[in-house]
Each structure stands twice: as C-alpha cells, then as structure tokens.
C-alpha cells in the first residue's frame, strides 16, 4: 500500500526543503503503523511539504488536578490521549527559526503551560539545541515530560513554564509520589 510520503521520495529537494522532507520522513517512520501514536499534517508549504503537524500521543499522564473534599489536596487526574501541534516558522531550521510546540489538549506538567494566554506552550529550551536537533528529538523529550521522567519544577533557571503546576509538583506531587507513576509496560513509554 503506497503512503503519501512515497510520492515525495526521489525528488531532489535542496536546502530548507530537503530538511523539511527529512523531518517528515523521520516523523513518518516513527509513527507508521503504530497504535501508540500517530501524526496528522495540518499545513503544507508551496512544495507540498508539511510545516504544521499534530502529534497524537497515547501515553498515560496527568491532565489536571481536582480538589479532594476530605483531604483538601489537589489529586491528579490522568488521561491517555494528548495532541501537540508543531508549527515550523518560515525560517526553519535557521538558529532564529525555532519550531513552536503547543498542546491542544490539557497536560499538567511544570514545563507545559496549563493556565493563561499561552496555555499548552511547551518549554523545551530549544535555544540550547541548535539547528542539528530534529523534531523527533524534541518529541522524545516531550514523551519524557508526559511520563514525568523529566521535569523542572524548581523556581530557578531554566525556570518552569507554569509556576502554579511547578508548585503543585513540589508541594504535593513529589511528596505523595503522584509524579512517579509508571506505564503498564516498558513499551508504553515510547512509541
């Protein structure tokens, strides 16, 4: 069965378009025929190459908190399907053309904005990564965020993206071990 990307293979892309095709190819390879994740192309450039992707993660994570009447604590609410939009600017992959990563579904993590005007924004410290970092490398980091195997909750450099969530992680999530949840199988951590 021919896939859409097969129509672009063998074309002689150069420069920026070659990079865009490589990014698409790597994402497609990762998600081809995978029940634990997928992607959707939301927008293309003039050459037909993707410049906006929705990445659908099927990973258990905290999607919010709910006040417990008895204890007064904010207990985690878990969910399994999460959508993150990746938007590539016109000058991607130049050093000043960093991609934007933003969840369109709720995710409760100190490095993902939960409240306010920038809700869903993911802080990946992309400025430190450079132009040789591929989108799938960032996706791997986001998977680490979703599984809480990586997070920064202390109010110090590089600073959490959402201070309210960070405070909950330090005061309740860590002491109650709510951020130490495990996936059912090792294979559930990455897809």
Give a structural overview:
The protein is of the alpha+beta class and 191 residues long. It has one domain (4-182): Ubiquitin Conjugating Enzyme (Roll), CATH 3.10.110. Helices cover 21% and strands 23% of the residues. The chain has helices spanning 15-31, 135-146, 163-173; strands at residues 37-44, 50-67, 74-87, 100-103. It has a 4-stranded antiparallel sheet with strand order 1-2-3-4, covered by helices on one side.
Characteristics of this structure?
single chain, 191 residues, alpha+beta, Ubiquitin Conjugating Enzyme, 4-stranded antiparallel beta sheet, 3 helices, 23% strand, elongated
The gyration radius over C-alpha positions equals 18 Å
Number of domains: 1
CATH level-1 class: Alpha Beta
Net shape: elongated
Count of discrete alpha- or pi-helical segments spanning 4 or more residues: 3
Largest sheet: 4 strands, antiparallel
Main sheet: which strands, in order across? 1-2-3-4
Write down the oligomeric state.
single chain
Uncertain segments are 185-191
Overall number of strands: 4
Overall mean pLDDT: 90
Structural category: alpha+beta
The CATH homology group name: Ubiquitin Conjugating Enzyme
What portion of residues belong to β-strands?
15-25%
CATH topology: Ubiquitin Conjugating Enzyme
Would you list the SSEs in sequence order as H and E? Answer: HEEEEHH
Estimate percent helicity.
10-25%
Distance between the first and last residues' Cα: 22 Å
